[in-house]
Here is the input.
Amino acid sequence: MKAIYKRELRAYFKTPVGYIFLSVFIFFAALMFVFINMGAQQTSMSSFFSNVGLIFVFVIPVLTMRLFSEERKSKTDQLLLTAPVRVSDIVFGKFLAATTVLLIGVAATMLFVPIMELYGTPAVAETLVGYLGLFLLGVFFVALGMFMSSVTESQVIAAVSTLGILMALWLLSGMSLQFSEILAGSLHFLGAGLDWLLDFISINARLYDFTLGTLNFVPVFYFLSLAGLFVFLTIRVIERRHWK
Amino acid sequence: MVEIRNLTKKYGNQLAVDNISFTVKKGEILGFLGPNGAGKSTTMNILTGYLSATDGTVLIDGYDVLDNPVLAKKKIGYLPEHPPLYLDMTVREYLDFVYDLKQVKEDREEHLSKICETVKITDVADRLIGNLSKGYKQRVGLAQAMAGNPEVLILDEPTVGLDPKQIIEIRSVIKKLGREHTVILSSHILQEVNAVCERLVIINKGRLVAGDTPENLGKSISNENKFQLRVAGDERSILDVLEKIGGIKYIKSLGRKEAGSIDFIIEAEPHVDVRASIFNALAEAKLPMLSLQTVDLSLEDIFLEVTKNQGKKEIADISEDEIEIVNQPKEKEDGAAEELAAQKEKIAEGADEDESDLQA
Here is the structure.
């Protein structure tokens, strides 16, 4: 696992992928920070986190698209899968490498906290909990992107389909509020159930739990279990290909 | 060292490998021969645990590839058809990665530099793999397979796409490796396996056609006496002359390839040299012979030879479809023979039982 992790991490910074991901992510995160926090002169990063989540929707597919599809296309998967290592080690190695790059990006945006310290008094502990939520959201997105990459040989298809799914998830969460308002009038008997369902699948709502500054077990478990699910599915897909 | 039992692989409904069994002894270099699409790569991918078999077992030094994948894979070095190289790494970085991946226990510096020397890539160690020529890439692929000194090396068409000088070099490397390792080498080039391997296994359309030493296979092959002949004149009169010569098994006209001449394929009876008599007879008839050359044996000829020895029919023309046709009746005969044998056994068993009944 260590060998794969090391190679994968190196590959991110040997190719432009790592730099592109980090520079685009940090640039847009900084833009959000300038508009939302500095412009409006507020120290609460709640809506900043929500908007950075949207940036994730666009940049994480770039981070994950090559993880498995490139190996398959260049046939290097034959080296990995005939080496004396387990499939789960390969998948975890790659997953952790992508997560590390994500962590670098998230950590870089934490510089915004001391900047705010210069002009005001942000609630540091609460903000850090928000950052944890943001990171866990990213971890889930990475797992999902990795899964899409394991399904196809084409990096483009992997990236576009990941983007599509993340976008749909994001919009669906945004709709949750509006839907319940519309439905409350005409279909109020359905309203409660649908509201509950939309809230249940709403990644935004879970992220919001973090940005309030409270560290709850439920949203942590929510993101980690989703990430775990897609890591597991990736392992299954690769093991299954062996049987085809 | 390597034991393959009743290996079968199906892709959907298509049978890629059909009930293949053979064993490779320790220290042996086995040639795995077959035309393109015969199932060589599939078989090798199953041996190395990249694919799984639909049926049958593969044992590497006693470890089942399916039940004990990590232990079995530890004993295998694999060079697939396309060397699995990361083009954005230098040779040295790549080998370092493979060393870590395979969890090699030996001293890193010493082990890797020894491998680099064996396959002669020491001078390109710091270059990006993507910038290397095909021959060097192939050698890096071979180096990767050798990392960790696995007892079994499985090489899938290691010389394909190389120039003649590189082919000779790689072959000598493989020969050298064969002293310390068990090697399975696939190829569709007869000369190659002939030059390197101690034993051959031939497969076609997923089936095992023959398995023997090159000498033994070569014996049946050397009986073959085939020539291509070009004679000036018209076809009828040439055939009249040729048909009178003794010792010729068959003559086949290939038609006109050069103005005013006809080409023929002639096969002589085994151990009969008909070249002088052909020359004399044609000279007498004033039909000038323009060229005479032996026909090189292709893999298909070997197949033909091999299937001919097993079956009873002979066929003049060579194509895989016809090989199939020859095979089928043979199988039926075999099947019938087996049935007969089984019946005989049953009768014998029945007799035994009767006897024991009597004794009781």
